[in-house]
Design goal:
The protein is of the alpha/beta class. The chain has four domains: about 10-85, no CATH class; about 135-260, 3-Layer(aba) Sandwich (Dna Topoisomerase Vi A Subunit, Chain: A, domain 2); about 315-550, P-loop containing nucleotide triphosphate hydrolases (Rossmann fold, 3-Layer(aba) Sandwich), CATH 3.40.50.300; about 560-635, Arc Repressor Mutant, subunit A (Orthogonal Bundle), CATH 1.10.10. The chain contains 18 helices and 28 strands. The strands form seven sheets. It has a nine-stranded mixed beta sheet with strand order 17-16-20-21-15-22-23-24-25. A five-stranded mixed beta sheet has the order 9-8-10-11-12. It is elongated, with a radius of gyration of 33 Å.
């Protein structure tokens, strides 16, 4: 459709075009012709200089889309003949990608800009639709930023995409936030963790300097080395580079006015290949603060001083993993109860602290709260977490977007433990669960926040259905976060000799502590909780005595097809054989006798561990033999 009026003011042209289109409205409020508009969402107003009209669709349609729907041209938005004006056009597109390089949205740079501006920036979805509401905001050139941070190298932060691209052209890694000055978020800062240094390059105007100060403050609070510099010539770093200056010619922000006079008007061109964009930062070990490992959960009896024999370290990421129906969530409720009551052996014993419980698979009212109550938790100290976004309440956290919010909440509420049930459900929906680098990029900021804000993370995870006897390799997602976790508690069930199920939990990874800590049995006790609406049936975790069986051994037994009865018989046979032999014997002779009785070597090895039999190498060369000893028969010295 083409409107019949090509003369008059721009406002008159637009109003007649709206009437011709059939849009309803009056004054400044009209139905938008670019979408199915039930109520007026298009504002039609005069430009500030009163020489044209401004269109703003509050539903998100771009000005170009509205003008096209009316059959007008962008020049029709101005009163004076537009042949004298340069038509606005897209001069650059800046894709914003996630950690894996997938485009989330694109920023278009339009020159000249609308409403008399020199330039305009508009945001579009990958399919070309205007508006990015609901889409996760990320840093520009994010994959390069993450790689630079992981390599412990410096990262530059500028105000706009053009500056970042110009710095990239000389070999630097630079980034910015979408929206320009005043739009920095602490969430962006989390992506910079690991960088040797963050250099914020301020634009040389008041908004630019305020923005740089805001970015630097956020980075400094995160504990990352940071400094602020300014271009020696021009308004921004692009002007600085265009003047033939390089990275080393940037000047400290506070000295910029004085240093400007010292820069020659025509500087010699700088060879981009020799402009330093990377440097080493060496810190002597003598300046590094040494800290002992402290434990959230220690092996010492309640009330005794903590030791180095801990299970779960403070301020780190630990995993509780197992198959379905083994009580992982009940264990999490037990941990919450211990922490909120100050009864967990370790650094926090005697000091009740708060817990954030982030759960996505179970109902709070029917499952989680009853479990917490059955476990004896202080419910005033256990917090369900919801996320408010755009004034709408969402059900779950999302990593890494909400990392800084978690840290601030932990600091405000005195949180000592974050329970993620399950951990992978907290990963942002845009991240591919099967790409290890993406999952690590989402979890690394959380690990850093736990250390910074002094809280521990217990993530629940499921075992995969794949076979294998290594508990860590069976954890879903372990290929991504296996190197991030400091401890792994695994859960398993086996059939006892009397045919009843026996539950066992063991520490299968302990990076910061001692390996080989005792396993524990545990039981699941059915519990009834009385509520105003009737009885709620739930279950609670009860920690049992130490066990000689580990989860790894249960897995091996499942793989080999070994029955609990045969294991019990092997233990009984081995103890009897050694007792009859005076408490000791040669290992190869014992295994030969065992094979004659129908026991495999692996079964006898597990029986030996259950009996805590010690071995000593005696003799030399071809006469060297391994002797097995019952604990009470082991020679002294």
């Amino acid at each position: 459709m083409t409107t019949s009026i090509l003369s008059g003011t721009a406002y008159e042209r637009v109003v007649q075009a709206l009437n011709d289109h059939g849009s309803k409205g009056r004054g400044n409020a009209w139905q938008c012709p670019a979408h199915d508009d039930g109520s007026p969402s298009l504002s039609v107003g005069h430009r500030k200089d009163r020489k044209g009209v401004v269109l703003n669709c509050h539903a998100g349609c771009s000005t170009e889309d509205v003008v096209t729907a009316l059959g007008l041209a962008m020049t029709d938005l101005f009163d004076e003949p537009m042949e004298r004006r340069e038509r606005p056009q897209v001069v650059a597109e800046y894709p914003y990608c996630d950690e894996g390089g997938q485009v989330l949205y694109v920023v278009r740079r339009i020159e000249p800009g609308y409403d008399g501006e020199r330039k305009t920036f508009r945001q579009y979805r990958p399919d070309g639709k205007a508006g990015v509401k609901g889409i996760r905001r990320v840093l520009y050139r994010l994959p390069e930023v993450i790689a630079q941070a992981h390599a412990n190298l410096p990262i530059l932060v500028v105000e706009g995409e053009k500056d970042a691209d110009n710095l990239a052209a000389i070999g630097a890694v630079a980034t910015c936030n979408v929206g320009g000055a005043g739009k920095w978020s602490d969430d962006y800062t989390e992506c910079l963790r690991g960088a040797s240094e963050v250099v914020v390059i301020a634009d040389r105007d008041e908004p630019g300097r305020k923005h740089a100060a805001s970015v630097a403050d956020s980075v400094r609070r995160a504990g990352i080395p940071v400094r602020v510099v300014e271009p020696a010539r021009g308004k921004d770093v692009s002007d600085h580079l265009a003047a033939g200056l390089g990275y080393d010619d940037l000047v400290p922000a506070q000295d910029a006015p004085e240093q400007l006079a010292k820069v020659p008007a025509q500087a010699e061109p700088v060879d981009a290949d020799t402009t330093p964009t990377r440097r080493l930062v060496l810190t002597p070990a003598s300046q590094i603060r040494i800290r002992p490992v402290r434990w959230l959960w220690d092996t010492t009896p309640p009330g005794e001083a903590p030791t180095s024999h801990g299970r779960l370290p403070l301020n780190s990421l630990s995993i509780a993993a197992g198959g379905p129906g083994l009580g992982k969530s009940q264990f999490a409720a037990w941990m919450a109860a211990q922490v909120t009551n100050g009864t967990l052996p370790g650094e926090l014993y005697g000091t009740p602290r708060s817990v954030i419980y982030a759960a996505t698979e179970d109902s709070w009212s029917m499952t989680i709260a009853p479990r917490l109550l059955a476990a004896g938790a202080d419910l005033d100290r256990v917090y369900r977490v919801d996320v408010m976004d755009d004034e709408r309440l969402h059900a779950r956290l999302s990593l890494p977007i909400d990392t800084s919010l978690i840290g601030k909440a932990a600091e405000e509420y005195g949180v000592a433990l974050l329970i993620a049930d399950p951990l992978l459900s907290m990963i942002d929906a845009t991240i591919n669960d099967y790409r290890a680098t993406e999952i690590r990029s989402a979890l690394e900021p959380l690990v850093a926040a736990a250390d910074r804000y002094s809280f521990s993370v217990l993530g629940l995870a499921h075992f995969t259905k794949a076979g294998g006897t290594d508990p860590l390799s069976r954890v879903a997602g372990s290929g991504a976060f296996g190197q991030l976790i400091r401890a792994l508690i695994a859960f398993a069930k086996q059939e006892g000799e009397d045919g009843t199920p026996e539950y066992v939990m063991s520490l299968e990874k302990n990076n910061l502590g001692r390996e080989g800590l005792p396993s524990h049995t545990y039981t699941m006790i059915s519990t009834d909780i009385e509520t105003p609406e009737g009885t709620s049936h739930t279950s609670r975790f009860v920690l049992g005595p130490e066990s000689l069986t580990s989860v790894r051994e249960v897995m091996r037994a499942e793989t080999s097809g070994e029955s609990p009865t045969s294991m019990g018989e092997a233990v009984e046979w081995l103890q009897g054989w050694l007792t009859d032999a005076g408490g000791s014997g040669v290992g190869r002779d014992i295994k030969k006798a065992a094979r004659n009785e129908g026991f495999s070597d692996s079964t006898i090895d597990r029986a030996r561990r259950k009996l805590r039999i010690k071995s000593k190498q005696e003799g030399f060369g071809k006469d060297r033999t391994s002797h097995w000893y019952l604990p009470e028969a082991l020679p002294k010295g």
